[in-house]
Amino acid sequence: MAGQPGETFGFTVSEHLDAIQAHVGSNLFDYVVVNSNVTPALPASARRAGVSRVSFDRQRAQQYPVRYILADVVSTTVSSHHDPDKLARVVMKRIWHQR
């Protein structure tokens, strides 16, 4: 959801997957949750710290053999963070629909 300065600043979804693959190998994930809510502005403190949104570069990301789940997982209180309850609901919904 947010790239970290000096680590993943400006990374897209596929670039995050590239970095993970380079460090630990390929085909690790069946699913990747991608935030679909990019409307809330990042807090000024996050922007000053160099935090950036992660964009979903769908065409390039589809080179990976994973299924993408687009969902609003943004925290309503701190828009540069995930909301753990929203994220848990997305994951649990996927788990329960696998049965």
Describe, in short, the structure shown:
35% of the residues lie in helices and 14% in strands. The chain is α+β, with helices and mostly antiparallel strands and 99 residues long.
What does this structure look like?
The protein is an alpha+beta fold and 99 residues long. It is 35% helix and 14% strand. It has helices at residues 13-24, 44-48, 58-61, 84-97; strands at 2-3, 31-35, 52-53, 67-71. The strands form 2 sheets. It has a two-stranded antiparallel ribbon with strand order 1-3. The protein has a two-stranded parallel ribbon with strand order 2-4. The relative contact order is 0.23. The model has no long low-confidence stretch (mean pLDDT 87).
Q: What do the pLDDT scores average to? A: 87
Shape: globular
Rg value = 14 Å
Number of domains: 1
Supply the helix-strand structural class.
alpha+beta
* Binned strand content: 5-15%
Listing every helix as H and every strand as E from the N terminus to the C terminus, the arrangement reads EHEHEHEH
Strand tally is 4
Primary descriptors:
alpha+beta; two-stranded antiparallel ribbon; two-stranded parallel sheet
Break the fold down into its secondary structure elements and pairings.
Layout: E1 2-3, H1 13-24, E2 31-35, H2 44-48, E3 52-53, H3 58-61, E4 67-71, H4 84-97
Parallel strand pairs: 2-4
Antiparallel strand pairs: 1-3
